[in-house]
Amino acid sequence: MSTSGRKTLVEEGTHFKGSLSSDCPIEVKGRVEGDLSAPALSVSTSGAVHGKVKVGELKSQGELAGEFDADVVQLSGAVKDNTVIRAKSLEVKLTPANGKMQVIFGECELEVGSEQAAKDQAKEPVKDKDKEKTPSARPPAETSPVLPTETNGSGSVRPPP
């Protein structure tokens, strides 16, 4: 199915609340609150997306809050407190706004890289330096007390009487 030229638009001044799913890219110039899924999401400087988002590509110049899962993320807007962004690749661009160049991050969590790499890293065993040491020679065998002995003229040993 071709999506060329088609897009879902949430225009400036529009406030959408609920679940939005599209098979073509979504452009947000207004405000979206809720679950959103699409092949791509673009948030303009006037736009805001708050909620749980799953997209292939995310480009945001506006405001993000919530939980975002995407393959490719390009940020140049604001990320609000308690926001989680999971991405295979992340690009942060500084854009001048009123003569200042800034990207604003609240308290948020960023996970960048593939899920498989994260799983592989979690499975890698932690090496214990004590376990790496080669064991020393066997501990000395327990010795029994030595009894005094006498020798007879033939060289044999006999215990004392």
Kindly, what is the distance between the CA atoms of the first and last residues, rounded to a whole number of angstroms?
Answer: 106 Å
What is the H/E order? EEEEEEEEEEEEEHHEE
Q: Structural class from helices and strands?
A: mainly beta
Radius of gyration: 34 Å
User: Spans of 5+ residues with little confidence (pLDDT < 50)?
Assistant: 126-159
Largest sheet: 11 strands, parallel
Short description:
The protein is mostly beta strands. The chain is 8% helix and 49% strand. It has helices at residues 115-123, 129-132, and strands at residues 8-10, 15-17, 20-21, 26-28, 31-43, 48-60, 63-75, 78-79, 83-92, 95-97, 100-102, 104-105, 108-112, 150-151, 157-158.
Q: What do you see in this structure?
A:
The chain is mainly beta. It has one domain. 8% of the residues lie in helices and 49% in strands. It is built from two helices and 15 strands. Strands 1, 2, 3, 4, 5, 6, 7, 8, 9, 12 and 13 form an eleven-stranded parallel sheet that branches. A two-stranded antiparallel sheet has the order 10-11. The N and C termini lie far apart (106 Å). The C terminus is likely disordered.
